[in-house]
Design a protein that fits this description.
The protein is an alpha/beta fold and 471 residues long. The chain folds into 2 domains: 160 residues, Aspartate Aminotransferase, domain 1 (Alpha-Beta Complex), CATH 3.90.1150.170; 244 residues, Aspartate Aminotransferase, domain 2 (3-Layer(aba) Sandwich). A 7-stranded mixed β-sheet has the order 2-8-7-6-5-3-4, sandwiched between helices. Strands 1-11-12-10-9 form a 5-stranded mixed β-sheet. Strand 11 and strand 12 form a beta hairpin. Helix 6 crosses helix 8. The longest helix is centred in the C-terminal third of the chain and has 36 residues. The radius of gyration is 24 Å and the shape is globular. The model has no long low-confidence stretch (mean pLDDT 95).
Length: 471
């Protein structure tokens, strides 16, 4: 493709994306295609000769777009948001155009040094202790794996990297901990049988006394506790574990304390939510995802550590072909995580923070929290529904209820309600299970969501519920 053709289609694609931002509300939020439908519309074999970009773009519009679920739709209330913003998309375009591989300082000094600056900014914005070091990972799952590997090395005096794990090490998280913890425990060599899921209280937060009991039981059995993972905003209900109490236990027993704040941590940008990070002096590592609730398109996960040397010692490599004469003076982020190759993710986060400013980000978060509070109020005022968990941020867990119905019947009823509402194409919500009870999750956090979209979701729910409850 020559420069002029690139320029032409570059303008075409930017125009299309700009229109998409404006028109995304016209699409059904959840793709309506059936399994196999997209594959059936595509040829079995690649073309022998190159095809014109116009044909490729047309197939994108006609074949691919019907199979897209629209995460940027203002009626997106499923899972958690995966926000983007025009500023972030433009930065991603520059990143793709540069095509830089940012594994060490020498391969792009600006990428390394901007990441250092942006992560220092973000740490201060959140209120993390001074001296905390940060690095951008792809996802919170990877950050959690990094934390578990660092904890493993600390517990074994950095011997596991040399000789392998020669004894059981125990990991603790709540029964509401994210599934990526289970996966990371397996990958890091602890073994899934070494993971302890600690009971939670009525608010779905870890019970510190149960954690300490589990640690003592393992020690009495001759096992070695190594790591505790607390959660600031669980996936099911955004429960917040009592981090200061858990941190004190970790300090007392010498355990690595990692905090998963992938979604909820962003709320710490607010002055009125700074108490979320009470106990941060105990954190050995902490992760928050700007690609969830901070307008930075996927993927961008901010991972912070108290002791950067422990992280580097866990991951560092020194092949001859990567050595430079400047290594002692700079940071080489290849040694701060699993990947050798690294994308220039800091650029889009820098664009977002500078474009919106801290106050602009705070305004968005406050508005989403307000909308969730409003939705909770509507649920509480309607006797047919009930709130299922405390509303900590912008997620409301609720369900339709029937007096005297057992949990199995309620689960079927709410699953039918959820599917009928989602089938409308106007909204998309998902469900969870809270101590065995089916709950619908209303996750408010999409950049374009306004009160009218939340109202539309509630109207859909109540109208559908009325039809389902008809005798």
């Amino acid at each position: 493709m020559d420069k002029e053709t690139f320029r032409y289609y570059g303008h075409e694609f930017i125009d299309w994306v700009a229109d998409y931002f404006e028109e995304v509300e016209q699409y059904p939020v959840r793709s309506p295609v059936r399994p196999g439908e997209i594959k059936a519309a595509l040829p079995d074999r690649p073309p022998l000769a190159g095809e014109p970009m116009e044909t490729i773009f047309e197939d994108f519009r006609e074949v691919i777009m019907p199979g897209i679920t629209h995460w940027q739709h203002p009626g997106w209330f499923a899972y958690f948001p995966a926000n983007n913003s025009p500023e972030s998309v433009l930065a991603e375009l520059l990143t793709a155009g540069l095509g830089a591989q940012c594994m060490i300082w020498q391969t792009s000094p600006a990428a390394t040094e901007l990441e250092e600056v942006v992560m220092r900014w973000l740490g201060r914005m959140l209120g993390l202790p001074e001296g905390t070091s940060g690095v951008i990972q792809d996802t919170a799952s990877t950050a959690t794996l990094c934390a578990l590997l660092s904890a493993r090395e600390k517990a074994t005096g950095f011997e596991a990297n040399l000789t392998g794990l020669d004894r059981p090490l125990c990991v603790y998280t709540s029964e509401e901990g994210h599934s990526s913890i289970d996966k990371a425990v397996k990958i890091a060599g602890y073994g899934i049988e070494s993971l302890r899921h600690i009971p939670t209280d009525d608010d779905f937060a870890m019970i510190p006394e149960e954690l300490e009991k589990a640690i003592e039981n393992d020690r009495a059995e001759g096992l070695e506790p190594a790591c505790v993972i607390g959660t600031l905003g669980t996936t099911s209900s955004t429960a917040v574990d009592p981090l200061p109490e858990i941190g004190a236990i970790c300090s007392r027993y010498g355990l690595w304390f990692h905090v998963d704040a992938a979604f909820g941590g962003t709320a710490a940008l607010l002055d009125e939510k700074k108490d979320l990070l009470t106990g941060a002096e105990y954190f050995d590592s902490f992760v928050v995802n700007p690609h969830k609730w901070m307008l930075t398109n996927f993927d961008c996960s901010a991972y912070f550590v108290k002791d950067e040397e422990a992280l580097i010692r866990t991951f560092e490599i020194h092949p001859e072909y990567l050595k430079t004469g400047l290594d002692a003076q700079v940071k080489n982020f290849r040694d701060w995580g699993i990947q050798l190759g690294r994308r220039f993710r800091a650029l889009k986060l820098w664009f977002v923070i500078r474009s919106y400013g801290v106050e602009g980000l705070r305004d968005m978060i406050r508005e989403h929290i307000r909308l969730a509070s409003l939705f909770r109020q509507w649920v509480e005022e309607d006797s047919r529904f009930e709130v299922m968990a405390p509303v900590q941020f912008s997620l409301v867990c609720f369900r339709l209820k029937i007096e005297g119905a057992d949990e199995e019947k309620l689960a079927r009823l709410n699953a039918e309600l959820l599917e009928k509402v989602n089938r409308s194409g106007r909204v998309f919500m998902t469900h969870t299970s809270l101590k065995g009870r089916y709950a619908i999750r209303m996750a408010i956090g999409q950049r374009a969501t306004e009160e009218r979209h939340v109202r539309e979701a509630w109207d859909l729910l109540t109208q559908t519920a009325a039809r389902l409850l008809q005798p």
